[in-house]
Amino acid sequence: MEPPAILRPPIVPGFHRPYGSFVACGPAIASRPEPLSGTLRDLAPTALRLMGLPVPRYMEGRVLSEALAPASPRHYAPPPAVASPPDQSYSTPELARVESRLAGLGYI
User: Fold this and answer.
1) What is the pLDDT along the chain (108 residues), one digit of tens a residue?
2) CA dihedral 10, 13, 17, 22 (to 10 degrees)
3) Nearest CA-CA partner of 55 in 34, 69, 72, 41
4) Does 104 reside within a domain?
5) Which residues form the domain of 45?
6) Region of 104 on the Ramachandran plot (φ > 0 left; ψ -120 to 50 alpha; else beta)
7) Ramachandran bin of 28, using left for φ above 0, alpha for ψ from -120 to 50, beta for the remaining angles
8) Is the pTM of this model over 0.70?
9) pLDDT on residue 101
10) Residue 97: per-residue pLDDT
11) Contact at 8 Å (CB) between 68 and 48?
12) Whole-number pLDDT of residue 37
């Protein structure tokens, strides 16, 4: 006799089980009378979509689109603008000091 599913070893490595609960509410979430069919791997892509961010192609899982209301601009805030960092290059004396320290440590 096979043990109940909750007592079987996990399919994915580590301490995570492949099943769980996903609870969400808000204007970007669709109202559903039936449960979703998804996995733990689907949570991160879904969260990214809810934040209006792109989902990388290499990411495992899928967006739980059936859990989301039709996209509306009022539901998503645009991602913040990212300013370019200021030029932080070394001056000639600073560069000489860094190289001296690296040489003293045996890196160069």
Assistant:
1) 666 766 666 565 666 666 677 788 888 888 888 888 888 889 899 988 888 888 888 888 899 988 888 764 444 555 566 666 677 788 899 999 999 999 999 888
2) -150
3) 41
4) no
5) 1-77
6) alpha
7) alpha
8) no
9) 93
10) 93
11) no
12) 83
Eight-state DSSP code of residue 66: G
Type of residue at 83: A
Tokens standing for residue 56: 């990388």
Give the span between the Cα atoms of 74 and 90, in whole angstroms: 45
Q: How far is CA 61 from the centre of its chain?
A: 11
Tell me, what's the pLDDT at 70?
A: 79
Q: Is residue 66 situated within a structural domain?
A: yes
User: Is residue 96 situated within a structural domain?
Assistant: no
Domain-located, residue 32? yes
Cα separation values, 12 from 8, 16, 46, 57, Å: 12, 7, 20, 21
Q: Tell me the three state secondary structure of residue 22.
A: coil
Q: How many structural domains compose the chain?
A: 1
